[in-house]
Structures are given as C-alpha cells and as structure tokens.
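input
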Amino acid sequence: MTTNIAALPDHNRLNDLLWQRLFHNYSHVITPLRYAGWVTDVETSGGEFFVRAALRDGTEVTIASEDNLPVDSAEVNGWIAVRQDVENPSKHTVLYDSTPTGPQRHHGSSLIPLMARIDALDVPSRAPRLIVSATHTAPYGSNHNQAAGIEDAATAVARFAEWSWRLTGHEGYRRVWQRPEHEGYPMALFESAGHVTTIRVTRSDD
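output
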C-alpha cells in the first residue's frame, strides 16, 4: 500500500529525551499532519514547546495552546494554529483558536475541527482524500458498520485518533493491534469482553 506520510524531521534532537517525549505525547497532532504530506516537528528551543508543520510553500503552521504546549497533552484545553512565513514570522495569520477565550472555544481540545481548518488551506501537492470506517463485531457474530464521509487527510487521520480514543477512554476497549505507520494508512483492532472493533483509514479512490 502506498502512502505519502511525510518523513520524520532531520535534526540532532531526535535522540533528546524531552523531544522524544513531546513527539510521542503529541503524536495525535503530528501524525495527521504527516499523512497530509508535511514534515512535522516539535519545537523545544527556548523552553517553549509547539508543533510545527512545513507546508512546502514557504509557510508553516505552528500549533500551541494558550501560551505553550504542556508536556502532558492531557492538560491542553484548546489549540491555537498560526500560519506564518518561514523567513519572516512577523507575517502571520491566526487560523484557529479554541482556547477558552478564542472564537472556536466551543471545540475545546477536539482535533477534528482544528485539522479541518488546516486542511482547507490552499497549499501545493495535496494528499489523497480519505475515509475512516469501523466494523463492530459482537461475540454472537453480528456486525455493525459505520463510516465518516470523504475527508482531507489530516482531518481523517485525526478522526481515526478520536474514534480510537473514544473506545479506549470511554467504552472500556483495549487496543490489541495497530498497523505500523510505514506499512500504510492507520488501522487498529480493539477488544472488550468478546466485542471486537476494527477502525481503518482508506483512500477514497480505492
């Protein structure tokens, strides 16, 4: 299966324990941006933490919270996304603000509206559009299927993350397998008391 997930960033912080911790803790933010085709990093210099995605057109999107990203992503109460010129960061536009005083505050820390706003940007070389679907199988064999509509890549992969989190965080499921990102689009298998749910991301043109 061919995907266009962006490469990992190339710098000397990849072995830094703080960078690794932040990259892992914010993988639910970083991975959708990488599937959109953008090299995405966590900035740690100067004691300020934020996610940075290069849009390949001379601009980048930075994602933070009210002031700074906390090390523990569970403490985030909203997102601020800014598009800025790489060479001249003073040229920038606030794209999205769901922090407690922002215009999108009703979305809180939900990722799907944030990624939908970023996906709507006019950028070159757009990634293929995707579909998130799930199959729920009961112990007695009945199946129930659900699917979201066709979405841009970052939005779809964020939806995969939120559906997965709902199963493990609210419905008592445990994740028993997940496809490695280098092997294709996200797919994971969950189980709870004999109930099995598979969530997958596929290209809309497959």
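quick obs: The mean pLDDT is 94.
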